[in-house]
Amino acid sequence: MSTAYKTVTDIAGPLMIVEGVEGVSYDELCEIELTNGKKRLGKVLEAREGMAVVQMFEDAQGATTEGTKVRFLNRAFEIGVSEDILGRVFSGSGRPIDGGPNIVPEKKLDINGAPINPYSREYPDDFIQTGISTIDTLNTLVRGQKLPIFSGAGLPHNQIAAQIARQARVLTDEEIATGVEAKEGKTEKADEKFAVVFAAMGVTFAEAQYFQQELEKTGALSRAVMFINTADNPVVERIATPRLALTVAEYLAYEKDYHVTVILTDMTNYCEALREVSAARKEVPGRRGYPGYLYTDLATLYERAGRIRGRNGSITQIPILSMPEDDVTHPIPDLTGYITEGQILLDRGLHQKGIFPPIIPMGSLSRLKPKAQGKGKTREDHSNMDAQLTAAYARGVEVRELAVILGESSLNDTDKAFLKFSERFEKEFIQQGETENRSIFKSLEIGWNLLTELPREELKRVKDEYVDKYMKKIDNG
């Protein structure tokens, strides 16, 4: 039986100082018993000779310096895992909240995980079809990639995340070989297992319900695991929530051979929780009050995505963050961009036009997409179409801005063609329904159809052989 210390000398927010301790280690889990008999979990943030700083995961209300007992458990924060965890909903601290029984664990895992040896990492190069044209064609998601969504207040990032969770799949060998979408019911490889792990931090109850209902509609909840920390839950619980989710994802991917998509929302709330704890510890603040170790802390989460050589499973990570004031230079998106392999940028202007999903090609980027586009992955013309559509739309937007200043009558025929292309591009390519699931082949077909608006000599980024092969099909349509 471990020693219970009654030497709490100070309590500041979620932190308490315990003195006279022995043999306590960093990150060790502890149990805090309040004077009313209620128990709270915490972990050691700092351990010095004879003193420990403890962070409570739950509400500190009722904690006093007199009568509070702290018992150190000589282990890190762990979660019990087994395949029975699929289809379940948990709190942000890992307790079941769906009315189901407790999980009988196959094993218990430290939620902090273990760093992946860079030598053991396998380069991500398998295309994932999300059913969203602007992602699949222009900002291709790759299995094992970490690709965040940069959003803002009021933008539909949750709807996009739910759509990806419902629709994401890989192409069959037949689809890759023929360049034609498979018939319904034959769209999954028989030897592959898929799962979704969803972590919500600081969301509203309505948002949490929305995700659960969206997954239930399509039966996807049976292969999903959800961790929900709502806005009224303890702030410090948010620091543990993504780590619990990623630990479950690692178990399913690397031990049970699942291909796991992890969705983390909202990383801004997570970073705010870090800032609050840092302020309570009286640490020297960094940019905008965030702790100086924000980059390192985010890296411990984002770098848990990937593929490992010799393992069949994979973890594809989609963090969502809402940028304060839509500022892409804010510390959270800025540091996230350094760690992850690109970003999906949502545009308020498109959203105000009623366009869903408001994903703008300029500013969005998938750094790993060249390895997942083209023959053997999607279709031979994919990479060329990506470059041509993005360039043509960017020019069309420039022409639109010029027309506002000089008037449309000042434009030449080529500029008018690009202007018309940009308008159709937004209405036909970017715009699609929340339940519309387009194959990559359908998206490419729409792209070729839009390119018929432009003069042949302006198609400088697609090979002539592809123009002859695919544009001819459209013309003969």
Topology:
Layout: E1 4-5, E2 8-12, E3 15-21, E4 29-33, E5 39-48, E6 50-56, E7 69-72, E8 78-81, E9 88-91, E10 107-110, E11 121-122, E12 127-128, H1 133-138, E13 141-142, E14 149-151, H2 157-167, H3 173-178, E15 193-203, H4 205-217, E16 224-230, H5 237-254, E17 258-265, H6 267-280, H7 294-302, E18 306-308, E19 314-322, H8 331-339, E20 342-345, H9 348-352, E21 365-366, H10 382-406, H11 413-430, H12 440-451, H13 464-476
Parallel strand pairs: 9-16, 14-19, 14-20, 15-16, 15-17, 17-19
Antiparallel strand pairs: 1-7, 2-3, 3-6, 4-5, 4-7, 5-6, 8-10, 11-18, 12-13, 18-19, 20-21
Write a compact overview of the structure shown.
This protein has 13 helices and 21 strands.
DSSP strand (E) fraction? 15-25%
The count of DSSP E runs of length 2 or more, i.e. the number of strands, is 21
> What coarse outline follows from CA principal-axis ratios?
elongated
- Tell me, rounded to a whole number, the average pLDDT: 90
Distance between the termini: 78 Å
Poorly predicted spans: none
